[in-house]
Each structure stands twice: as C-alpha cells, then as structure tokens.
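DATA SHEET
Item: assembly model
Revision: 1
Owner: S.N.
Input lines:
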Amino acid sequence: MSKKAYDDALPRLREQLVQMQVRLKQFPFKVMLIVAGLEGSGRSEYINTLTGWLDPRGVETFAFMEPSDEERERPFMWRFWRNLPANGCIGIYIGSWYAEALRGNSRRGKRARDDAHDLLKHIGQFEKLLTDNGTLIIKLWLHVSKANQGRHLRALEKNRDTAWRVTPEHWYQHRSYDRLARASRYVLDQTHTPAAPWVVLDIEDERARNLTLTEILIKRFDEHRRMLGARETAVPRPKPVPRAVTAAGRRRLGALPLDQELTEQEYRDKREKWLGRLHRAVRGAQDAKRSVVFVFEGWDAAGKGGSIRRLVSAIDARAYRVIPVAKPTDEEKAHHYLWRFWRCLPRDGRVTVFDRSWYGRVLVERVEGFARADEWHRAYDEINDFEQQLVEHGAVVVKFWLHISKDEQLRRFRLRERTPYKRHKINAEDWRNRRKWTAYEAALSDMFALTETPAAPWHLIPANNKQYARLQVLRLACKQIEAALKTKR
Amino acid sequence: MSKKAYDDALPRLREQLVQMQVRLKQFPFKVMLIVAGLEGSGRSEYINTLTGWLDPRGVETFAFMEPSDEERERPFMWRFWRNLPANGCIGIYIGSWYAEALRGNSRRGKRARDDAHDLLKHIGQFEKLLTDNGTLIIKLWLHVSKANQGRHLRALEKNRDTAWRVTPEHWYQHRSYDRLARASRYVLDQTHTPAAPWVVLDIEDERARNLTLTEILIKRFDEHRRMLGARETAVPRPKPVPRAVTAAGRRRLGALPLDQELTEQEYRDKREKWLGRLHRAVRGAQDAKRSVVFVFEGWDAAGKGGSIRRLVSAIDARAYRVIPVAKPTDEEKAHHYLWRFWRCLPRDGRVTVFDRSWYGRVLVERVEGFARADEWHRAYDEINDFEQQLVEHGAVVVKFWLHISKDEQLRRFRLRERTPYKRHKINAEDWRNRRKWTAYEAALSDMFALTETPAAPWHLIPANNKQYARLQVLRLACKQIEAALKTKR
C-alpha cells in the first residue's frame, strides 16, 4: 500500500475510532482486543500504532510476565480477572491467556496435555461469561510465515540501531516455528467460538495491516453495539425456566427440624471442643497451602454474624478476612458481578469468610428483578464454574445456609426493633424481603438443586436455636476441611 | 467488674457505637483503630468483642503476615497503603506497621538500627499525611506485666480445650519479655505525636477493659467529628503562602529557548540511537531489579502523548504500563489523593509511565480551587516524601515538564479544532485552562522550587518542536537511568 493511499485513508478511520470511544462511554460495555501471533507477525507494531490513535483515557494495555506469588497462589484465571478493563473502556491484550495456552499446548507429555486441556476449558468459560455479560471480545491472530519471520529478524539484526530488538528468545522461537504453529492451530481451533471467534490475517504490508485490523475493530464494535441495543429494547423474552425446577430443595428445607434443645453448659463444652478441632483443621490447611472459602447465606436475622464471629475466633487473626457483602462500589459495578468476589479470594493457606456472597445473584437479584431472567438463569453455571476453579486450585469451599422459621424471624425482627443498639439491623427492606418469603423459597429451591456439587456442597443449618446453629457450623466446617485435606490437590 | 454491672452498661455503649457508625457514613472520614500490645494483653479478645458489637458493613479488619513478593518489590509502606479503610469506614488493625517497628527495634546491630530508624520516619509521615487529611487514628497499647503474661499462657495451656491457643512463639515472646518491653517503650515514645497519640492502658479485668477501650473510641470519635465540623464551617483562614515563593522557577521557564531546528533525517537517526540506548538502560534496570517511574506533566497540547508513545516503544511491552490520569473513581475519592498513585506503582524491574500525575494536586487542584489552600500547601512535602520512599526503595523517578509557548499552544488548539479526529482532544476546559496561564505559571514556579530534589529532579523540555522534545525526553531518560544504576540501591 502506498504512503499516499494510507495517508488519505487515515483521517476518516481515526475519526471513526474517536466516535467509537465516545459511543462506548455513552453505552458502556467492555471491549477486549486480543492481538496474538508468533514473533515477527507485527503484533506490537500494530498495538503501538493503534494506541497512538486512541484517546488514552479509556484504553488500558495489559501484558503478562511470570505470575507473581500472589497470582500463583490463586486459581489460574485470577490474574486475568484482576486485569480487565472497566465498562466503557478498551482493554488491549498482548500475550493474554493465549500465551499460556500456546506454551501449554506446545509441550509434550500427558500431564502437560491434561493441564493444557483444563486451561482451554477455563478460557472458554471465561470468555463465555464475559460475552454473555455484554463484553465484546475481538481476537486477532496475525499469521507470519517461517520465511518472513526469519527475514524480519535478520533485517532488524543487520541495522546497528535496531539490533537490540532481537533476543536469543526470538531465534529460539524461529527454530521452533513448526511446533509453535501446530500448537497455535490447535489452540485457535479449540477456542474459536461463535461469541468470540478468531480472525486470522496474513497481511505482510504494515500499512495495509494497520488499516484492515482497525476496520475490523470498528466494524465489530458497531455490530456489537447494535446487537446490545436491540437486546435492550427488545420485547421481553419469555422468562426462561431454570433447568431443574424441582421441589427437592424445598422439601429438603421443609423437612429440616428447626428446634433443638441445648443447655448452656453443653453449648460451652462442645463449643470449646469444636473450636479446638477447627483450629487444628485450619492449621492443617495452612500447612498444606490450601485456602478455605466460607460462604454464609441465610434468612435475614438467621444469625450469620454471630456464627461467623465464633468461627473466626478459632483462626489466627492474621490468616483470615471477613467480607461483608453490601452494595457494590462503582468500580465493582463496571464489571461482571463475580469480579468483586474474585477480587477478594484468599491466597493459599489463608481464609476468606463471605457474609453473603455471589449467591445474591440467584436470590435477591432474582427475586427483586435486579438481574434479568437470562442473567440469573445463567448464573448457576457461572457460579459452579467459579467454585470449580477454586476447588481445582486446592481451596476448600464451605457453604452454609442458616435456616429459621418464618415465626422465629418475626420474633427476632421484633426483638431488634425493641433493642436500641439492634435497631440499625432492621429496616423497611427486611420487612419487604419477609413479605417475599415464598418467592425466596422458590429461588432457594433452585439454588440448592443447581449449585449443589460434590466439591462444594451446601450445609443446611437449623438455626432457630442460635447456639445449636453455631455448633453445627463449627462441626461441619471441621468435617469438610478435614475430609478435603485427605484428598490430594 | 461484675457481670451485672457490665451487662447494665452494655446497651447504652452499644447504642453509642451504632450512632457513631451512622454519623461516620454521613460525614465521612476514615477511622483507624490500632490495638497493639504484647502477647496475652488481650488484643485479639477485645477486637473480637468489638467487631461483634459493630455493624460489619463499614468495618474492615486488617492483619499482616509475611509480605508477599508483590509487597516486597515496592516501598515498605505500600502494603499499608493497599490496606486502608475507605472514608466512612472503620479499619481495625491487628499488627499493623507497629509489628514491624517493634521487630526492627528489638534487633541488634547498626544496620538494623538504621532500618528501624527509617521505618519510624516513614510511619510518622504516613500517620501525619492521613491525619492531616481528616483521618482519625486511635492507637491503643494494652500493657501486660510479665507475670500476668505467664499466668495467662499457663492457664490456657492447662485446659485441654484451649491449649491449642498457645504456640512455641508465645513462649519465646514470654522469655524475651524484657527486650520486647524495652523496644516497645522506645517505639511508643518515638511515634507518640499530637495528631496520633498513644493511649497506654493496663487493665487486667476483661470486662472493664472492653468498656474502657470502647469509651475511648467513642470519645475520640466525637471530638474528632466536632473538630472536623468546626474546620468545615470556619471562616476561611488566610491563604498560606508556600514556603518558597521564588521567581526562580518562573525565571527558569522564561529562560528556556523553545524553538530548535531539526531535520527529519537528523530526528530519525538520533531517535533510533537513543531508543536503542534507552532499551539497554531499561534492560539494565530490569536486571538490577530496579523499577522506573516516569512522570509526564506539561501544558495542554504540549505533546505528552506523542513523547510517551516513542518512549515506550523502546521497552518490552510486558514490562511497562501507561497510566493516563483522569477523573478519580469513587473508590479513589474515598481515599487520600496519593492513594490512586500508590495503587499503580510498578514492581521491581517494571516501568510505570504516568500521563499526568500527583502533581495535579499543586497545579490544577490549586489553580481551580479543588483543593483547599492548606491541602495543596501540604502537598509539596507529601509529594517529596512519596518520591523519597520510591527512591529509597530503589526506583528511578524521572519527571518531565513539557514546555511550549502560549502562541504555540494556540496554534495547536486551532489545529485540533480543524482536524476531525483530533477534535475530541480539545474542549472548553482546555480554553479555560489557557485563560489561567498566569495562575499556572505561579503554581509551576512553586512546584519547581519545592519539589526539585536531588533524587527526583525535574527535566524541563522545550517542546515547541515536537521532534526535538521527543529526543530530549529519550536522552534525559537514558542519562538519569544510567546514572541511577551506577549508585547502589
């Protein structure tokens, strides 16, 4: 392409880019642009050109070197979750999860193959979750032939001023061209999905490449915006029915005996016993570099706070964090609902206690209509994948539902209203939730049916008797951690 | 204290706590509660009790184990900056920076003493910066005698169910009681400041302790709120004059020759030469595990973006990040203005480029009145301390001011307005800033006079000729990094 033709085409293209960024701010979603390819394909050159054209406010470039220990001590995808653009922004990825996938798939041996396979699965889930949530993912693969790659490297090396750009690593990759090309074909093939397809390009001329890639970006953006706009204004689709609307969960809750007897002395004795045992179990997890994630859900006034307080009294104060889940901040709102939970996952050997959790998506957000039906419907799978990643990484995921009867709730609400220092714990919202008891029961029924997994089972705790509930929490926490430590991670 | 007396006092106290939290949300500042003391002083017991009384939404407990590599590879205070409560919240600290200070000051040897001394200096600056900014820091030291410490540990060990609470570390600390007590007296003495004084308490009875500590918290909170309220409604104090209102900075800028000649060929040749050299310099910094922090400031349209783009083209894409500084998010607004910059400091061996920076505090925020006079006046010291910490940690801090004439700015503004894809770069605000040219010149003069330090000097770049400016940026960046690498960190 001639310089003249290029210069003539640029003003219009750059104007379109600017418009794109303005529109993205008005109707915010995430754009993730992955520019991948082997050495000498012109990835960095293109990214450098493109970032020169874009308004830097609203663009973030993400690149990845060796993971840090904070990253290694969490599920593999954590480092990518912490490197996401906010809604309204464009994230440009050099490297990305595909660098790892390529490395994995070019290695030999069964273990390497299995790991690589798991990784591709997680990548698929990650991209699906993001695109389902409105994110535009554009994946560009810049092809370069072995001959051109060699020519490119030699030309750089010949010039004294650019020779520094070529490292031994580049020549190593050149010698491994065939193996890397094979691996990349496989990875592309496995991750080419309708929602996030690959575009493979083979354009030698830098100017033509710059124009073509940018046109693709603009075109995909416009299509995506129209598609999301259409979804916004569409006649509401019929509410999807969760896959398993069973009465099983409800029956399970209904069958739960709620009123247990316990003397004060029995409670104290047993509490000390279980606290000691829990302390040893958590110590064991720490020694084994396994993290523990506690999830506390339950009816309003079911006693989550009190149970958590007793639980953590058995844990070294430096090793745990309690996360009370309230209204998201605006940084959190600019992301997928799971982002705020990824954000506070514990490192290996540490404990995080969630006081309410991601299950809000399929409980309050479903019942109150804060999430669209397709959103909360999708959430069961997303949650299972999320917990699965935690468990695969070695975490113990302990989930509690604290269950009280409707009468017991009323009694506690009234007590809170009568007690000055408890009055702040009860407000109009609690009374409103209470009126929706039946809707919550339906949501609970689906939740238990759809998110009960062998790796992260639900513990239903009868909690009309607070002290009994606390003991059960301690006992079941012990049991699950002890059992998990017996399995290899 | 009898159980009866305790139970009688509680309701009123807990009500006050609840009111405190409500008020804190309405008139938001940070509360940082540091509960320190030797083993057996009842720290954890009190924190456990207190968190049981507080509404968990709005309370965060911070504790610190060994620093992670991400923490070690940044200035020491980084891990505390990343663990601050937001405004409107209470942060409760177990351990905190005082654990480290105690450890440091109980060691022997000159090196240990020097390090410990530096640490106490940083702690002082950190607490001053926070309290100046409206934060309430309450520091409680719970005293325990050696005899009581021993009694406490033995009592726990005797009971089969609580024996697990005592570890060899506890007994080691007991044997070292005298040394630790000496070190703690020294640390308390050195960090007892009017703004963040220590309260030392010696109360053996747990109930009396719970009440007294909580009363102190409530009392200090009320005093602090009144003090801040008085400041809000006070008759504006006379505008403080910066310590050095010199004409030196202005003269320096005035004397800068702005128009340099350069042929296209000269530019290209020199650019390649300096890019190569910069590449080697940054590689050298990476090998030496030194980070580089670039600060780009300059008049609107001075060419910051273009200079940054050329600069980073010499750096491995995975090793640098460009941070365009725009409007803070609400999480950022709930913190000190430096928080957002601490947040994106590079790890050892990495590079961060700030496109505008913390200097906004003493430029736009001063000129536009977004910061009160006492705030921006304080900022010079805060900024110097901040950069000093970076440099002490081994970072190279390279600061540029891109300078153009008022006429040249006008020419560029008009060009932007005429060019469709540049139109977004110019808006009413740019024209408004331009009208305040003289006010900015005064602010710049103070900035250069007050934040020019040997460790982090300012580079004034004549930038009427863009290409010349880019070469200067490359050249000065090289020189400073090369010189820094010759010094030991």
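QC remark: The two ends of chain B are 55 Å apart (CA to CA).
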